[in-house]
Amino acid sequence: MNDQNLKLCESDYRFMTVIWENEPIQSGKLVELCNEKLGWKKPTTYTTLKKMSEKGFAQNVDTIVTSLIPKEKVQVFASEHFVNHTFDGSLPKFLVAFFGGKRISESEAEELKKLI
Question: 60 with 53: CB under 8 angstroms?
């Protein structure tokens, strides 16, 4: 799968989050959790699982569902896409907009310095 195919709509991302947080998970249990967390009925869960399997995000082997793409990889793609699309690829512009004049704590500033 190339990185262009890592984009998920909100509902697919929420579905994959249920898998990522509970894998490996039996498909029946996945149906229960999607009902509880997303308000989905069984057919919606299985339709979405089939779609995510066809896209290469998840698999259902012998009723055991697992992810094929790590959550972090999807998050990196989504973050980069957002910054590129909305802020012309400028991380400083994004940070200025994100903080919106809010002050950050000294420990948060130190954490950001370490990341840089």
Answer: yes
**Over the stretch 36-84, which tens digit does the pLDDT of each residue have?**
999 999 999 999 999 999 999 999 999 999 999 999 998 888 888 888 8
Tokens 């509880």 identify what position? 36
Give the CA dihedral 38, 39, 43, 49, nearest 10 degrees: 0
Rounded to whole angstroms, the Cα distance separating 71 from 76 reads 9
Q: Map residue 26 onto helix, strand or coil.
A: strand
Q: Measuring CA to CA, which residue among 51, 2, 3, 1 is closest to residue 19? A: 51
Q: Are 47 and 54 in contact (CB under 8 A)?
A: no
For the stretch 76-113, pLDDT in tens is 888 888 888 888 888 888 888 888 878 888 898 888 88
Query: Which residues, in sequence order, are CB contacts of 28 under 8 Å at separation 6+?
Result: 63
CA 89 and chain centroid, separation: 20
Whether 6 has a pLDDT exceeding 70, the answer reads yes
